[in-house]
Amino acid sequence: MRLGMRGWPKIVKVGYKRSRKERGLHPSGLEEIIVRRPADLEKIDAKTQIVKIGHTVGERNRIAIMERAQALELTVANPGLKKPEPTPTEELVVKEPEPAKSEEESASTGAKSE
Asked: How far apart are CA 78 and CA 52, in angstroms?
């Protein structure tokens, strides 16, 4: 196998790892702590750890965790996507059908009914 071919990953060799101090850390250099409920935030040190919300956490708990993390001034690695606000849409104008003319009205306008 040739090295450097497109479509192939690099071959793992000696020196491929990170240094021991950096292994398992978030790219920011902080230790990731997985949080599943707001009470878990009390044990986190903001200087050395970063919050990562578990993937099974629902929207209601995610919002509660985010609010508590902001109060404790903690960094959250995966805050989640904010829902886009609905864009204001123009109101549709619905025209009501005109009522059918009765025979008396059509006779007064001069139209003949058959």
From this structure: 6
Domain boundaries, the chain: 18-79
37's CB contacts (< 8 A; 6+ apart) are 57, 61, 65
Least confident of 1-5, 22-26, 103-107: 1-5
Distance between CA atoms of residues 114 and 112, nearest Å: 7
Show the CA angle centred on residue 97, arms to residues 92 and 98, nearest 5°. Answer: 135
Distance CA 93, CA 98 (A): 15
Q: Under 8 Å CB-to-CB from 32, ≥6 apart: which residues?
A: 24, 25, 26, 49, 50, 52, 77
pLDDT of residue 96: 80
pTM of the model: 0.59
Higher pLDDT, 81 or 7: 7
Contact 56, 67 (CB under 8 A): no
Tokens of 51: 């919050």
